[in-house]
């Protein structure tokens, strides 16, 4: 088996390695395909090949002289932060890379392909409660970010490729898509480190949105389980039940986004914010941040505090049913929490020191307070004018 990976998303690499280890323990020979070699030593039976999914010749070399039973396409780009604003790279990786993988699978006779998609292919800022896989894709212009837009395009391409004839009369390609919620777990290199960095810089001073809003998360071990089950459900002995199908995958526990991270915040010794701001105010702040990045990004490619899409994804209710994954894949989410992540960060020197706040954090408090005050004044001014 081969899983075309990409260093464009560190979270993908974490999932990639855990999936490789899980398959290896089942006696499966694994090829890891990525632009950077893994930092850790790979076990016997797991082989690494360097390459980029945007380069068709790189993929062809990885597939050459290998009898591949299943491809796990995990790579993507632009999920969060400043990467969300790089539209060209997002298009190249998410759409172009997927087209390359489909092309090589058909040429080399790969019978199964599992695509790592996202909840966001059906979410554009609207409220979703217990949604299922019958939810339609959004019109492309309604997606709030290019990542979600291109992931929907790529997922459709993968599912439409299901049943296509493989070259050389080797049967047909069977495909399915796994749609994970927000991914977490020890060693995850996208969401949790960013939150911890905000804590350490004294920037996590408020929460926003309705406290009753609910979103979902998935522990990386549950996601690994879902990928393996999906690949098995594409086989003939399972009746090809997953062929052409998408599956929502999460821990099955809708929770307020900020309450989910409370154990991490308090576990590292920081006070949980008591200030709650309106969602529309934070969206305006994110919009201004994106404008600033557009104007200044070429001179200084700074990390936005929040993007508009991130405000929607963290502050608007959207969670989905696991019934289809349970029934067709046999998926059962195992219980996890953030305690293992807390211990992981503590072991690497993170957490609030006993000495208390430093002068640097006090300065950050003042600067952040002034920015928020200015933003609140700007936000409130139109309604004040209307009342005159």
TrEMBL record:
Pfam families assigned: 3Beta_HSD
Presence of keyword Nucleus: no
Domain 3-beta hydroxysteroid dehydrogenase/isomerase: 42-279
SUPFAM superfamilies: NAD(P)-binding Rossmann-fold domains (SSF51735)
GO MF terms, alphabetically ordered: oxidoreductase activity, acting on the CH-OH group of donors, NAD or NADP as acceptor
GO biological process: steroid biosynthetic process
Keywords linked to the UniProt accession: Membrane, NAD, Oxidoreductase, Transmembrane, Transmembrane helix
Gene3D superfamilies according to UniProt: NAD(P)-binding Rossmann-like Domain
TM stretches of this protein: 277-296, 360-380
InterPro entries: 3Beta_OHSteriod_DH/Estase, Lipid_A_modif_metabolic_enz, NAD(P)-bd_dom_sf
Family: Belongs to the 3-beta-HSD family.
Name recorded for this polypeptide: Short chain dehydrogenase/reductase family 42E, member 1
């Amino acid at each position: 088996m081969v899983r075309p990976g990409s260093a464009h998303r560190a979270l993908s690499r974490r999932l990639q390695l855990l999936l490789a280890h899980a398959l290896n323990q089942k006696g499966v020979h694994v090829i890891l395909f990525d632009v950077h070699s893994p930092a850790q030593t790979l076990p016997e039976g797991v082989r690494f090949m360097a390459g980029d999914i945007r380069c068709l010749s790189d993929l062809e070399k990885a597939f050459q002289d290998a009898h591949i039973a299943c491809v796990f396409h995990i790579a993507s780009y632009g999920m969060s932060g400043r990467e969300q604003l790089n539209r060209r790279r997002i298009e190249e990786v998410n759409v172009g890379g997927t087209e390359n993988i489909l092309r090589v699978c058909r040429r080399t006779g790969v019978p199964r392909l599992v695509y790592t998609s996202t909840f966001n292919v059906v979410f554009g800022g609207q409220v979703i409660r217990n949604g299922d896989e019958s939810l339609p894709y959004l019109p492309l212009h309604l997606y709030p970010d290019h990542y979600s837009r291109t992931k929907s395009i790529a997922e459709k391409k993968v599912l439409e490729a299901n049943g296509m004839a493989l070259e050389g009369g080797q049967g047909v390609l069977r495909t399915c898509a796994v749609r994970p919620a927000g991914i977490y777990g020890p060693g995850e290199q996208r969401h949790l480190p960013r939150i911890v960095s905000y804590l350490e810089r004294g920037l996590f001073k408020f929460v926003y949105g309705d406290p009753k809003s609910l979103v979902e998360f998935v522990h990386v071990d549950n996601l690994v389980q879902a990928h393996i089950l999906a690949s098995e459900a594409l086989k003939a002995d399972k009746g090809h039940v997953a062929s052409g199908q998408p599956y929502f995958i999460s821990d099955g526990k809708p929770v307020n986004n900020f309450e989910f991270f409370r154990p991490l915040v308090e576990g590292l010794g920081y006070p949980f914010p008591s200030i709650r701001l309106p969602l529309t105010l934070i969206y305006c702040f994110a919009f201004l941040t994106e404008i600033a990045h557009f104007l200044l990004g070429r001179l200084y490619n700074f990390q936005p505090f929040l993007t508009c899409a991130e405000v929607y994804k963290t502050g608007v209710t959207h969670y989905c049913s696991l019934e289809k994954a349970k029934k067709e894949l046999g998926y059962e989410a195992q219980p996890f929490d953030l305690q293992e992540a807390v211990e992981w960060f503590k072991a690497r020197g993170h957490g609030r020191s006993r000495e208390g706040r430093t002068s640097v954090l006090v300065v950050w408090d003042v600067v952040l307070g002034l920015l928020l005050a200015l933003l609140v004044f700007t936000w409130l001014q139109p309604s004040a004018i209307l009342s005159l």
